[in-house]
Specification:
heterodimer; A: 234 residues; alpha/beta; Rossmann fold; 6-stranded mixed beta sheet; 3-stranded antiparallel beta sheet; 8 helices; 9 strands; B: 269 residues; mainly alpha; ABC transporter involved in vitamin B12 uptake, BtuC; binds adenosine-5'-triphosphate; binds magnesium ion
Chain lengths: 234, 269
């Protein structure tokens, strides 16, 4: 059974279609990289998968073994307000919430988990700092720590390396690969084709319509784009 | 002066005013933190106008004011809070539109009736009775219980609603509960402290606390404390000077806010 199945979906803002007739599946343990130029609908696809925007057509379904709160998410744009009083610790801990049923108290395990992830992302020393007073790259790390703190089966990250320095970028790729190796499926939107080449098991190449979906091997072995075009022209 | 206070406190009225005022200040301050952070600072003001309209319409059509205005105000609050989710109109603009429309409707409906505009503006805290005390106590208990039991969820949703929604959280339920509680606070508060004050009770403690503290937990606690302390102080001053309580609270809030800003400015300068 697939973790996530998108069947023939189309997305639009008002009447303006940004993506049409896309079908693909993500299975447990997969590492899917979504690539495509600016405005090709990558982030919109992610939002649709998360139920943040509606689909015009088609269905998106989660497999039985995956429930919504087991999806961790790093948005492309940090939606948090600029002047919000929140400590780094409070923000990271809130990643533990989605698995809570009703009340919202944090256990010792939650706190340990949050601290471990702050440590991994190198923001433990910023624990009591105000989130709004961090640099862009530091904020990105904190939001990554929040996402990583979730008890997840699927990790969705939208251009996670934006704002990170070279060292942090390499570290992040390593961490995501590690999470993937532990059995968590990963969907990563990226412009970094080298990273896709290195880590992905599958590639989805978008340009308002799917140009390619398949295994990495097939994608990098050659003439995906052309064959698509040829088919269109024929 | 002490004798004067002694006489005042010998009856029930000032005690009632004291209890109701404290509970209401704390409730409004707690709700205020999330409302201000979600850019709904003016919702208290808008809802008090809606409440005025509902009151006028209820009087004009011979219905029970409370039973009529509460659902109307709650529904308006819910619709306003829902707007934030991906709509084109910004929250505060929508509040302004609703506020003006309600005032216009209220003014027309109130034509010829004997609604006391002065007590609507400034409330009449000395007219507080036992049932007001009970109602406010229930409201305050509900708000405090919700803030204690669901504190972390409230933080998460206020900080980043999209993230909670992406994780399958029921953000609409939270918005509905917030709307209902805000509506209750406004309707109850309006009768006691007036339209002018209720909005100040919501906004000022939160703004002051945000100047002083950087973590959400500290801001919430500080807002509640500031709300109660400034109400108490202002109540005594207003009794001593025989000035309207609502106006005194607003002025006192302003002074504390000014001091907090000064501290904030000195810390960052
Ligand atoms: N909220 C919105 N309202 C209207 N149109 C939108 C909205 N968000 C995105 N779009 C449009 O949808 C298209 C796809 O946007 P999307 O953000 O999905 O692109 P993307 O592939 O993530 O691009 P990037 O690489 O720049 O992040 C764009 O043409 C954009 O103008
Ligand atoms: Mg994008």
């Amino acid at each position: 059974m697939a973790l996530l199945t998108c069947q023939n979906i189309s997305l639009a803002y008002e009447r303006h279609t940004v993506l049409s007739e896309l079908s693909f599946q993500v299975h447990a343990g997969n590492y899917l990289c979504i690539i495509g130029e600016n405005g090709s609908g990558k982030s919109s696809l992610i939002k649709a998968i998360l139920g943040l925007i509606p689909t015009v057509n088609g269905t998106i379904s989660l497999g039985e073994e995956l429930s919504k709160h087991e999806i961790a998410y790093l948005p492309q744009q940090n939606a948090a307000q600029k002047d919000f009083p929140a400590s780094v610790y409070e923000v990271v801990l809130s990643g533990r919430l989605s698995s809570k049923r009703f009340f919202s108290f944090y256990s010792r395990k939650d706190k340990q988990e949050a601290e471990a992830n702050m440590e991994r992302l190198g923001v433990l020393s910023l624990k009591d700092k105000s989130f709004r007073e961090l640099s862009g790259g530091q904020q990105q790390r904190v939001l990554l720590a929040r996402a990583f703190s979730t008890d997840m089966k699927l990790l969705i990250v939208d251009e996670p390396t934006v704002g990170l320095d070279a060292y942090a970028t390499a570290e992040l790729y390593r961490m995501i690969a590690e999470i993937n190796a532990s059995g968590v499926a990963v969907i990563m939107v990226t412009h970094d084709v080298e990273a896709a080449k290195k880590y992905a098991t599958h590639i989805l190449y978008l340009q308002n319509k799917p140009l390619f979906f398949g295994s990495k091997k097939d994608y990098f072995s050659g003439n995906h784009g052309e064959s698509e075009e040829n088919r269109d022209n024929a | 002066m002490l004798d004067y206070l002694k006489i005042l406190f010998s009856g029930n009225i000032l005690w009632y005013a004291l209890i109701v005022g404290c509970l209401l200040s704390m409730t409004a301050a707690l709700l205020g933190v999330t409302l201000v952070l979600k850019k709904y600072a003016m919702i208290g003001d808008g809802l008090s106008h809606v409440s005025f309209a509902a009151l006028s319409v209820a009087v004009a059509t011979g219905q029970s004011p409370m039973a009529f205005s509460l659902p109307v105000v709650a529904l308006t609050a819910f619709l306003l809070l829902r707007l934030s989710e991906g709509s084109k109109i910004k929250g505060d603009a929508a509040v302004a539109v609703v506020s003006a429309a309600a005032l216009a409707i209220g003014a027309i409906a109130a034509r010829g009736s004997n609604i006391d505009i002065e007590s609507y503006m400034f409330g009449s805290i000395v007219a507080v009775n036992l049932s007001d005390v009970i109602l406010t106590a229930l409201l305050a208990t509900a708000v405090i219980a919700i803030y204690v039991l669901f504190y972390n969820r409230i933080f998460a949703i206020t900080f980043d609603e999209t993230y909670v929604k992406a994780g399958g959280g029921h953000t609409w339920l939270y918005n509905a509960i917030m709307a209902l509680l805000t509506a209750l606070a406004v309707v109850v508060g309006l009768r006691l402290v007036g339209a002018l004050l209720i909005s100040a009770l919501i906004i000022f403690p939160a703004l002051t606390a945000m100047r002083l503290f950087k973590s959400f937990r500290k801001v919430v606690i500080a807002a509640a404390v500031i709300g109660v302390v400034s109400f108490l102080t202002a109540l005594f001053v207003s009794v001593l000077l025989d000035a309207p309580t609502g106006a005194c609270v607003v002025l006192f809030d302003l002074v504390i806010f000014g001091m907090a800003s000064l501290i904030h400015w000195r810390k960052t300068a």
